[in-house]
Design a protein that fits this description.
Helix content: 10-25%
Order of helices and strands: EEEEHEEHEEHHEEEHEHEEH
CATH class of the largest domain: Alpha Beta
Strand content: 25-35%
Distance between the termini: 33 Å
CATH superfamily of the largest domain: Protein of unknown function DUF3822, C-terminal domain
Mean pLDDT: 95
Number of helices: 7
CATH architecture of the largest domain: 2-Layer Sandwich
Largest sheet: 6 strands, mixed
Number of strands: 14
CATH topology of the largest domain: Nucleotidyltransferase, domain 5
Low-confidence stretches: none
């Protein structure tokens, strides 16, 4: 059974060739949404999460995809996100696709099941080199041949690229995954900081964020935007509000709207899933 499911009454399983499918697939879970491209409206979201302290393997993900009534159908466009804590950003002029494994290994160890792939980012002008599970990548290639997966930072930067133009000097974003988070800071439209931190509890997240604030001399009056696995009034946002005056939740934006069934949903939780349709 899905941990989350919302769908509009106009959803038509026989009209999926008029829909865009966006899916996020990893050992941490499987989530997907459908965009009705005729109305430019999101009409379905469905999410499956493993039990606490457990993960999905390739066999379980294959079972979920095979048994789902939407995931094996034909679509106008398909976008796949493969989140990963291990990634490296390379300035575009320095990137050599033949050396992506070598570039990645400067910062990370390539493990046995790792496959190294790359995404081009427009803003900033970089390549994102990251490790994914090769067994899960093969699964994705079997179900969705020809689809090049995106790291979750790609749609995150796409969102930030549009959102930071409406802010003042700094744009600060914290994106929370299951056991790691990304901290991204722009100053005067220049990327100043982007890093991934592992965490075990809320105190770890607060420590890393406030430590970076201190070292970069960022005032606590600045606004920080949250997305991913956090909620309004939960321990993270409540405790962060003690130290940082303006804590807001990122709102997905683009050439799309949401069905009314999403009205009570905290959209920031699936910010990357909704935003991947904006990416080239």
């Amino acid at each position: 059974m899905p941990s989350l499911e919302l769908f509009d009454e106009t959803l038509d399983i026989n009209s999926t060739e008029n829909y865009d499918l966006s899916a996020q697939i990893s050992r941490d879970g499987l989530s997907f949404c459908l965009l009705d491209t005729i109305r430019n409206k999101y009409v379905l979201i469905r999410s499956f999460e493993p039990e606490e302290n457990k993960y999905f393997n390739a066999e379980k993900l294959q079972e979920l995809i095979t048994q789902d009534d939407f995931l094996t159908r034909r679509y106008k466009k398909i976008s796949i996100i493969m989140p990963s804590r291990k990634c490296t950003m390379i300035p575009a002029p320095l990137y050599d696709p033949a050396k992506k494994d070598e570039l990645f290994s400067f910062n990370h160890i390539i493990e046995e099941d790792n496959k190294i792939i790359a995404n081009k980012l427009a803003d900033p002008d970089t390549f994102l080199v990251f490790a994914v599970s090769n067994s899960i990548l093969e699964l994705i290639n079997n179900f969705y041949p020809g689809i090049h997966p995106a790291h979750h930072i790609k749609p995150l930067f796409e969102h930030i690229s549009h959102s930071r133009k409406n802010t003042g000097r700094d744009y600060i974003h914290v994106h929370i995954e299951r056991d790691y988070f990304n901290l991204i800071i722009f100053n005067n439209n220049m990327l100043k900081f982007c890093n991934t931190f592992s965490y075990r509890n809320i105190s770890d997240i607060l420590y890393f964020v406030l430590n970076v604030f201190s070292k970069m001399e960022i005032k606590q009056e600045e606004t920080i935007y949250l997305s991913g696995l956090t909620e309004k009034y939960d321990d993270l946002s409540s405790n962060m509000s003690i130290y940082i005056r303006n804590v807001k939740f990122a709102v997905p934006s683009g050439n799309f709207t949401f069905s009314y069934v999403f009205d009570d949903m905290e959209l920031h939780r699936f910010l990357n899933l909704f935003t991947i349709v904006n990416c080239e």
